[in-house]
């Protein structure tokens, strides 16, 4: 889950400055996203060509393992290797039994992972500095018939239908939160044939959705240009009428 660039690098910040609470909160947010909106990633797997199941799967920017766990469950014969640059994420991933590779994707695709059948990059590609290099490396590393799947949040998660939240999300978008390009031309440039899919998922209210909302919504109080902090605080102080929705864009590249 990404809160845009101010948030995207919070893990780097944690690593550099020992901001353990912020890092722990970031990891909890990733897990809550999986708990509340995980079905959407399941739908992404359903988009994959149903030919031969992949045997070598690589999860780029694996975070706390949302994608890795899903892929291990859906492709039980596959080896799932989780790649991340954040040692704290790697620790979480190794604890879940994944093969882990510590790598900075700004330096390209890890050379030891040649021959992958499925490379998965969820909410991670927009963090990478040299995307053309990484995409060229991935294309070269894929086994014949291999697939690269890129997933991004197409919009910030919605928790309520309250207009104040709407305006807070608009202000956050304007402030560059969750900014990512349309990856289609980038993928084509790297030689891939690309299909893009846009997924919208509404889920019922739940305790996890409430925890996610109460962790997420206060972040908008600090968005530059958002001048309705008292109204947002009033929303948070009341009973949240949850109507959670996630929107993701998916690129399936071959
Ligand atoms: C927003 S999280 C997404 C995690 C996971 N893919 C998910 O869908 O929940 C982005 C992840 O990418 C990792 N990341 C960011 N920049 C990276 C880089 N240059 N090299 C390797 N990993 C990176 C972060 O450490 C973080 O775990």
Automatic annotation (TrEMBL):
Region Disordered, annotated ranges: 1-21
Pfam families noted in UniProt: Methyltransf_12
The enzyme's E.C. designation: 2.1.-.-
Superkingdom: Bacteria
Residue span(s) of domain Methyltransferase type: 58-148
Gene Ontology terms describing biological process: methylation
GO molecular-function terms, A-Z: methyltransferase activity
Keywords: Methyltransferase, Transferase
Cited PANTHER family: TRANS-ACONITATE 2-METHYLTRANSFERASE, TRANS-ACONITATE 2-METHYLTRANSFERASE-RELATED
UniProt name for this protein: Class I SAM-dependent methyltransferase
Naturally occurring in which organism (per UniProt): Kineococcus endophyticus
